[in-house]
Amino acid sequence: MNEIENNKKTEYRAPALEKGLEILELLAAADEPLSKKQIAEKLNRSINEIFRMLSVLVNKKYIEFDNEFSVYTLTLKMFALSNQHPPVALLLKNAQPLMEDLSVKLNQSCHLSLYQNHELVVISKQESPYKMGFSLRVGVSLDILGSGSGLVLLSYLSKQDQQHILNKCEASDEEREHALNLSESIIKDGHFIGESPQISGVTNISVPIFSVLGDILAILTIPYMTLNTATVHHHVENIEHARDELITVAEKLNHNLTKC
Known about the structure:
The chain is of the alpha+beta class. The protein has two domains: 3-75, Orthogonal Bundle (Arc Repressor Mutant, subunit A), CATH 1.10.10.10; 80-259, GAF domain (Beta-Lactamase). The protein contains eleven helices and nine strands. The strands form two sheets. Strands 6-5-4-9-8-7 form a six-stranded antiparallel β-sheet, with helices on both faces. Strands 1-3-2 form a three-stranded antiparallel β-sheet. Strand 8 (202-210) and strand 9 form a beta hairpin. Helix 2 crosses helix 4 (47-59), helix 3 packs across helix 4 (47-59) and helix 6 (86-106) packs antiparallel against helix 11. The chain starts with a helix and ends with a helix.
C-alpha cells in the first residue's frame, strides 16, 4: 500500500461506525448473550467507548438488551434486511409454497440455505406436519463440510471460491479432500444424498437452486428422518421418493426464478 492509499485510509475512517460494526460482529459470533463489560473486554475498548453505541444499536433494534440479566443479544433485523434484497425476496416468495407442499406430501421438514457474508445460513424452513421431525432454526449457520447443503454449495462453485471457503473451514485435510472428491458425483447426479455426520438417523438430501445467470443461488435440503411405518401408523414415503419429490420442487423453483 503506497503513501496516498495510507492517507486515504486514515482520512476516511469513521470510528463510531467501526465501533458499531465491531459490536454487531461480536454479538453475531457469540454463543450466548454478553454484558457491557464482556463486550468492552472482548473488543479491547473501555465501557465509555461503547456505551453510546450500544444505546443507539438498541434504539435502532439491531441489538436487544435484557434488563433482567443486563446482557445484549443480536436481533434478527440485519437478517430481515438482507432478505429484502430483490433476488433473495424473490427466492423466498417462490420457494415458500413449494416447500409447504413438499413437507405435507412427505411428512418431512425442509429448509432453504443461502451463502452470504462468508456463511451458509438457513433463510427459510418448513416444519414437518407430523408430530415428530427434525428441523433447523432460521438464521442458523451450517457447517459447510458437515452438511449436505454445504457439499452441494461447494460442488457448484469455481475452484477459486472453493479454495476460499476451504481455507476458512476448521477441518482436517482429509475432510477437505473428501468434500472435493464428492463434487464430481454431486454435479453428475444433480443432488447430494448421504447420512448426516452430525445427527444419527437423519439422511441429508440436498439440491442446488440457480440464479438467472446460472450460478448457484441457494440449496434446498430435506433432513430425511427414517420413520417406522408399523409404529407411526401411517404410510411413510421412502427416501428415493423423497429425493425425487425434492428434485421436482427444485426444477419448479429454478424454472420460476429464470422466467421472472
